[in-house]
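Fold description:
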Amino acid sequence: MWYVLYPLDLYNDSAYYALTLFRKQFLYDEVEAGINLCFDQFVYKLSEQILAHYNCTNNISQQVFC
């Protein structure tokens, strides 16, 4: 499960290098926009899976199979 968080760590490293090594604010802003998109997609997919799990649990309790 932890492997889904690895891209976030890559974005963190990229943002660090954009500010410290390259000293480019616009590059940091682009990395920040990318991480915001990545995090939004992660939350969306996670919420879909949680909803599917509880729908299935509810259906099982009502004797309807997924």
Q: What stands out?
A: Helices lie at 6-20, 25-61.
